[in-house]
Amino acid sequence: MKISSQLLAPVVALVAAASLTACGGGGGGTAATPSAGPAAVNTSAPLYSALPQAIKDKGSIQVGSDIAYAPMEYYDTDGKTVIGFDKELGDLLATELGVPVVFNNSTFDGLITQLQSHRFDAAISSMSDTKERQQQVDFVDYYLSGSIMFVKAGNPNGLQSVDDLCGKTISLQRGTTQEEYVTSELSPKCEQAGKGKVTVMAFDRESEAMLQIEQGRAVAGIQEYPVAVYNTQQSKGKFQIVGEQVIAGPLGVAVSKDNTQLRDAVQKALQAAITDGSYQKLIDKYQTPQSAVKQATINAG
Question: CATH for 146-248?
Fold first, then answer.
């Protein structure tokens, strides 16, 4: 998938944004910083009546997100405005549901806990829908994505696929599907083959993980495919993609299991956006046709 060239925010800017957003306190390790978002409630919206009364009373859907994950969700150059695919998806949902979908910044690995404690109503943060996570939250699946390896420009270690990572050190974002894949599948496979385990350096932010590769402390990273493509394109030649996608599957809007009414309302809103073509326009804008879903499914991962 090729990410739109209009989203101009180089990796160095991503690092700076991550440094700024990592300074706060609160659950999950960083302060919740809400996005501006649309301000008006529209009680005449097609699916307003499908919302839980608590959401109607509050007048918004408060979403948790790790807002340092371009091109999916990140801050614009002003350091305040949330932009990206997931943010625009939230705006599509808001149009159908009639209440603003407000993004709040948090660390990725704290999002599920914050949903369960009802700090947030939902999480939209490029979160993979997996069987393990389905034990804790429900997902409305909106995007198909895999993971892919990237390395320092020039590929100094001659890596061709993830199988070449056996016995080597890589850097990843903590709490992600990529970390789970390496520790529970790839590394054991390497050890069984007698090639040595994959050593993982884990960080709260993708930008921190990428810095380890640039400085030679790790030989590679694995990121979600659209993110890896975007980051390598915007790195001004510092990184390159290597090999093919692995562990492809759906990303979902996560909702607490005790909030099935909100889950179902989100599913209906996404399906409406798919049906009327506004979802496809968003897919086209970000030039990720392989990621489009044909139906809004629940827990399809």
Answer: 3.40.190.10
